[in-house]
Structure formats: structure tokens, C-alpha cells
């Protein structure tokens, strides 16, 4: 450790340049990861934050909520299998709305829920709808950026129905569109051609909060349905899998590139110091001692670079516009930190091998 610190002080310029490269790599990795997480949240936060464990969909719907259609009798069958759990219907309808505020068209997704159920989102402004609400909606607060406010009226272009905004939620989006929560009475009003009686109204899914045993029971006892977890339902959101796959591949390649870059830098520096390593070995220094010094250097540079990279990432995120999805929580930072340290140590393996194989007499002779 002390040898590593003394060497860092002795060759400050060289190590500052290496640290700068490591900072840029760490910054880029964290920034792309934050964008990936932000896009994931913007695409599916309504499902990610849903207080449910499983979703029951129509069989062969390919795990897509918008392709599933369930009838009221299916809900009754599912409830029979979930006596010790909660099951509630969910209606999903992607649409376009306009407002009295302006004529700009806004893509949204209607979520029909039971306002007293586990699917009711947290309201951050205004108040929640109830079963007796008539043509009232709680919308994601991203619509505030489009000029909407409490009391404004939005018009569904498909059905012609007008809904008054009585509350705003946070982090409720589906397929990159803000979610508009309504009750099932209003769900009927935008699907008047589908059924006559409200208790026969079709919906898209049944949210279930319970154990895997309950989910397996629904699979075997209720015909014509499939039961998927929330994570599986995310893969069914249009474009989610492809978008996240591309971004995760970018992050993976950044880590691979980081390993190669760091390996080259540390190896070149190790080659330049072969004579010093030879002298140290000649006077009795063990290979393990030299290896600890090299690893200490790598860890110190990596930790300092990561700290600066994290600070830069959060600093830049404060400058990003609200419309740009960016999310970086402590859990993601921890994972990235561990991976970056692992990649840094991996990149030093070639240098460690070279140090272990150095011949003291040959190195001293080359220095002479």
C-alpha cells in the first residue's frame, strides 16, 4: 500500500492522465445506465410500481396487456382461486386526447381500475377518483408540462368523452405515454359498443397479489388464461425489450472496452517499470508484495475515478430537461461500482502475470 502511494506521488502526471481516462469511462457508463433506467421507467413505470405480483391475461395474448380481453366470469373464477389474496381487474386502452387549453394532441393510456383496490396510485396533487366519480380522471403529472392543470378537461378522440382532471400522480407511464386513471363506470363510457351491462364489461387483465402457489392454482383451475409476473409483462410492452436490449448491450460493451483500455495502460506502465521490479525482487521483495502494490494502485485509481464519475453524472443530470428520462438510484450505482472495480482488477491481471514472471537478474541487467 505504502509503495503504491509513493509511486502515485512520484509519477503524478502519468497517473492523473490514467485517472482522467477512467473518470470518462466511468462517467459514460453511469450516464448510459441512467438513460437506460430512465427509459425503462418512462416506458413501464405504471407496471413497475404496481402493487401486484402477477397479471392474469387471455391465453395466447403473447404477454401483451393490449392484446388480452377477459370477461367478468373469468374474474369470478380467479377470485375463487385467490381466497387469501387480492384480485382486481385492469382495463388498458391506448388513445389520444386533446384539451380545452389547446388543440395539441397528446398520446395517453387509459387505466381502468377499482379506486379502492391495490391498483390505485398515489396522488401527489388533488384527490383520487372513486366509484361514483363521473367523467373524472387522475393523470400522470407529466401532463402538467404540456400545460394541463387541475380542473382542466381532456377529450378522448376515440369515444368523444370528456374527463375532468381532479388529481395528478407521479411515475405513471405506459409505453412512453402518461397514464390516465379512470373508474370502470367511465371505462364503460369509452367502450359503449362492447357491452350493455357494466358487470359484463370486458377488461384486459386481472392483477393478483399473492404467492406463486396461488398463481399456479389459477393456471391449472381457470381455463383460457395465462398468468405472468410483472417482469414478464414488461417484456410485452411494445418496444420495451428491444429498447432495453440495445441500451444494455451498449453498457456491456462499455465495460468490455474499459477492461481492454485499462489492461493496456497498466501493462505498458508495468513494462516500463520492469527494471524496478527486478531490483526489488533482487533485494528480497516477494511477488505477493509487488502484486499487492499493483492491486492497491488499481483500486485507489478506480475508487477515486468512480467518485468523480458519479459526481459528474449527478451534476449533468441536474442540467437535463424534464422531458429527458434519466434515473440513477443507489442500487444501480452500487452494481455499476462493483462491476467497474471488477473490470479494473480484470484489466490488471496481465500486468500481475508479467510481474510474477519477471526475472531479477535479467531485469537488473537490462537496467544496467
UniProtKB/TrEMBL annotation:
It holds the Pfam family FtsX. Residues 249-358 form the ABC3 transporter permease C-terminal domain. Residues 17-195 form the MacB-like periplasmic core domain. It is found in: Cell membrane. It is a multi-pass membrane protein. The chain crosses the membrane at residues 247-268, 289-312, 332-353. GO terms for cellular component: plasma membrane. Keywords: Cell membrane, Membrane, Transmembrane, Transmembrane helix, Transport. InterPro entries: ABC-4/HrtB_transporter, ABC3_permease_C, MacB_PCD. Part of the ABC transporter complex hrt involved in hemin import. Responsible for the translocation of the substrate across the membrane. Belongs to the ABC-4 integral membrane protein family. HrtB subfamily. The complex is composed of two ATP-binding proteins (HrtA), two transmembrane proteins (HrtB) and a solute-binding protein. PANTHER family: ABC TRANSPORTER, MEMBRANE PROTEIN, HEMIN TRANSPORT SYSTEM PERMEASE PROTEIN HRTB-RELATED. This is Putative hemin transport system permease protein HrtB.
Amino acid at each position: 500500500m505504502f509503495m503504491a502511494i509513493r509511486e502515485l506521488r512520484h509519477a503524478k502526471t502519468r497517473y492523473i492522465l490514467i485517472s482522467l481516462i477512467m473518470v470518462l469511462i466511468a462517467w459514460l457508463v453511469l450516464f448510459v445506465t441512467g438513460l437506460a433506467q430512465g427509459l425503462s421507467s418512462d416506458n413501464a413505470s405504471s407496471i413497475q410500481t404496481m402493487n401486484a405480483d402477477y397479471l392474469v391475461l387471455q391465453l395466447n395474448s403473447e404477454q401483451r396487456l393490449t392484446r388480452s380481453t377477459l370477461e367478468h366470469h373469468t374474474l369470478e373464477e380467479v377470485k375463487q382461486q385467490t381466497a387469501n389474496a387480492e384480485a382486481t381487474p385492469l382495463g388498458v386502452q391506448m388513445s389520444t386526447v386533446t384539451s380545452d387549453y389547446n388543440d395539441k394532441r397528446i398520446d395517453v393510456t387509459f387505466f381502468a381500475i377499482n379506486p379502492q383496490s391495490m391498483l390505485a396510485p398515489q396522488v401527489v396533487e388533488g384527490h383520487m377518483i372513486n366509484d361514483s366519480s363521473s367523467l373524472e380522471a387522475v393523470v400522470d403529472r407529466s401532463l402538467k408540462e404540456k400545460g394541463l392543470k387541475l380542473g382542466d378537461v381532456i377529450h378522448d378522440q376515440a369515444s368523444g368523452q370528456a374527463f375532468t382532471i381532479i388529481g395528478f400522480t407521479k411515475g405513471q407511464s405506459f409505453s412512453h405515454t402518461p397514464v390516465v386513471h379512470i373508474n370502470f363506470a367511465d371505462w364503460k363510457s369509452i367502450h359503449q359498443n362492447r357491452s350493455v351491462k357494466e358487470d359484463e364489461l370486458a377488461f384486459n387483465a386481472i392483477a393478483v397479489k399473492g404467492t406463486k402457489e396461488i398463481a399456479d392454482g389459477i393456471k391449472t383451475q381457470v381455463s383460457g388464461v395465462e398468468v405472468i409476473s410483472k417482469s414478464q409483462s414488461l417484456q410485452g410492452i411494445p418496444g420495451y425489450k428491444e429498447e432495453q436490449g440495445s441500451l444494455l448491450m451498449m453498457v456491456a460493451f462499455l465495460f468490455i472496452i474499459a477492461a481492454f483500455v485499462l489492461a493496456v495502460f497498466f501493462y505498458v506502465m508495468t513494462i516500463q517499470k520492469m527494471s524496478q521490479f527486478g531490483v526489488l525482487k533482487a533485494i528480497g521483495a516477494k511477488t505477493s508484495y509487488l502484486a499487492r502494490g499493483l492491486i492497491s494502485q488499481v483500486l485507489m485509481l478506480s475508487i477515486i475515478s468512480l467518485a468523480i464519475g458519479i459526481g459528474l453524472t449527478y451534476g449533468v443530470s441536474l442540467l437535463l430537461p424534464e422531458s429527458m428520462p434519466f434515473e440513477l438510484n443507489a442500487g444501480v450505482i452500487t452494481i455499476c461500482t462493483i462491476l467497474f472495480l471488477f473490470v479494473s482488477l480484470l484489466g490488471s491481471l496481465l500486468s500481475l502475470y508479467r510481474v510474477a514472471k519477471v526475472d531479477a537478474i535479467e531485469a537488473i541487467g537490462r537496467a544496467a
